[in-house]
Amino acid sequence: MTIRTRTLPLALLLLAGCSHMGTPPHHTEACNRAVVLAFYQEALVDLQPRAAFDRHVTDDFIEHKPDVPEGTKAATVAFLEGLIKAVPEPKWEILRTIAEGDLVFLHARFSPAAGAPHYAIADVFRLKDCKIVEHWDVVAPPPKQAPNPNPRF
Predict the structure, then answer these.
(1) Res 139: pLDDT
(2) Strand 131-140, strand 57-63: pairing
(3) 8 phi and psi, to 5 degrees?
(4) Does residue 81 fall inside a structural domain?
(5) 113 is in which domain, residue-wise?
(6) Nearest to residue 119, comparing CAs of 144, 91, 139?
(7) What is the pTM of this model?
(8) What are the angstrom distances between the C-alpha of 109 and each of 94, 106, 127?
(9) Angle between helices 25-40 and 7-16 (to 10 degrees)
(10) How many domains is the chain built from?
(11) Handedness of CA 29, 97, 100, 71 (dihedral sign)
């Protein structure tokens, strides 16, 4: 995954200004978006899910992905570490984000290897005090045929 070059510096700037306690209401959405972008960069682009979870996710994190046993923080880290080991060259790319209140929506493209067809991913994160507390996703595999001429990305 790559974060567009104009997006990452903004995210890092906003993240630097985030306080995990007492963030003013008008800064919450920007802070939440910055946290999710920093988390995604570290966990998936840099392939360091354990470090990203330690830095950006609460201990009582709830995972809704059906493939993750127990839906806990530890189970999600183990799932992502296994995924990263199982695919030759994983690559995630954030295409767009929307922050609304305590939610950040993310549309991403995933490829398990260079030249492989892309999966479409919709991630939803819920945050509290600029920390990720909950996650949902919808993953669409590459289509076998695409009669619709409009791209998914």
Answers:
(1) 96
(2) parallel
(3) -60, -50
(4) yes
(5) 7-140
(6) 139
(7) 0.83
(8) 7, 10, 22
(9) 120
(10) 1
(11) negative
Residue 127: its H or E element: strand 119-128
The amino acid present at 37, given as its one-letter code, is L
Q: What is the CATH number of the domain that holds 72?
A: 3.10.450.50
Structure-block tokens of residue 29:
């959405």
Q: How far apart are CA 116 and CA 128, in angstroms?
A: 36
Phi/psi of residue 37, each to 5°?
-65, -45
Helices of type H across the chain: 7-16, 25-40, 49-56, 73-86
Q: How high is the mean pLDDT of the chain?
A: 88
The phi and psi torsions of 10 (rounded to 5 degrees) equal -65, -45
Confidence category of residue 146, pLDDT binned at 50, 70, 90? confident
Inside any domain, residue 147: no
* Cβ atoms of residues 108 and 95 within 8 Å: yes
Q: What is the mean pLDDT of residues 64-92?
A: 95
**CA 125, 106, 109, 142: dihedral to nearest 10 degrees?**
80
Give the count of beta carbons closer than 10 Å to the beta carbon of residue 84.
Answer: 14
Is residue 2 one of the residues assigned to a domain? no
37 falls within a domain: yes
